[in-house]
C-alpha cells in the first residue's frame, strides 16, 4: 500500500521506503570505504596492531589527551589506507583518537587528486 514521504509537507507517494528521492538522506561517503575495508578491520592482524597502538598511546586521545576506552577508543590512519595501502599496519602511521576528535581529523579538506584516488581505490588490489 503506497504511503507518503515522511518529509513534512511532501506529498510524494512511495511504494517502499520512508522518504522520496528528493528527501532521502545522502549516505556518507566514508561508509562506502569502510565497507570496502571491513574484512581488514575485522582481521586478527588489525586488532593486534590496534591494541598495540592503544597501549603505546596510553589509552589517551593524541589530539585532546582525554582518556579513551571502549567504543570511544578509535585507531586512526594518519595517511588513509586509500592514499597508501602499504602503511595500513605501520605503527608510525597510526594514532589513538577519541570519537569526538576522529571526525575532525578524518574529514579534512582534500585535494582534487586525493578525491580521484579515493574514487579509484579498490582494496582487492592490496589485500
From TrEMBL:
Q: Keyword annotations for this protein?
A: Endonuclease, Hydrolase, Nuclease
Q: Which Pfam families match?
A: HNH
Q: Name one GO molecular function term.
A: hydrolase activity
* InterPro entries for the chain: HNH (IPR002711), HNH_nuc (IPR003615)
HNH nuclease domain ranges (all copies): 48-103
Report the family membership. Belongs to the HNH nuclease family.
Q: What is this protein called?
A: Putative HNH nuclease YajD
Amino acid at each position: 500500500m503506497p504511503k507518503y514521504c515522511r518529509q513534512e509537507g511532501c506529498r510524494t507517494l512511495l511504494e517502499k521506503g520512508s522518504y522520496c528521492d528528493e528527501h532521502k538522506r545522502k549516505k556518507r561517503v566514508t561508509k562506502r570505504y569502510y565497507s570496502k575495508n571491513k574484512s581488514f578491520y575485522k582481521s586478527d592482524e588489525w586488532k593486534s596492531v590496534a591494541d598495540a597502538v592503544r597501549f603505546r598511546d596510553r589509552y589517551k586521545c593524541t589530539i585532546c589527551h582525554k582518556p579513551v576506552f571502549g567504543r570511544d577508543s578509535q585507531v586512526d590512519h594518519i595517511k588513509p589506507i586509500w592514499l597508501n595501502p602499504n602503511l595500513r599496519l605501520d605503527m608510525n602511521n597510526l594514532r589513538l583518537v577519541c570519537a569526538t576528535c576522529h571526525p575532525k581529523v578524518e574529514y579534512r579538506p582534500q585535494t582534487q587528486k586525493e578525491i580521484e584516488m579515493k574514487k579509484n581505490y579498490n582494496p582487492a588490489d592490496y589485500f
